[in-house]
């Protein structure tokens, strides 16, 4: 008989903690960003855009989170896969979904299980990835 241990879903408290941690990392770097947190079903749990962040960063943070969630991988790891000749080359245009293959989206896991994703937009892609990763690392 196999037993399955329940894994707590991503809560709004978790989402707010992720937003705060990513915001703190970005602020320390002097970067204004937008941060999106999605639950395992792709539903918005939390969103924050810094006052001076570029407007498009709200959309990019959400698309990065969605992409990381759907493919269960950091978007930074997927950039090469959508280049010509890559295995996902046609994926960005094949689906009517908001995928974005730019670094800054990171899956959120608890006990090895996918429970959501965070996306950060507004800085350079490498910065956004760093802010998202730093936030996920703070989640207990």
From TrEMBL:
The domain of life for this entry's organism is Bacteria
Q: Which SUPFAM superfamilies match?
A: GlcG-like
What Pfam families does its record include?
A: HbpS-like
Alphabetized InterPro entries for the sequence: GlcG_carb_metab_protein, PduO/GlcC-like, PduO/GlcC-like_sf
Protein name as annotated:
Heme-binding protein
**Native organism:** Streptomyces edwardsiae
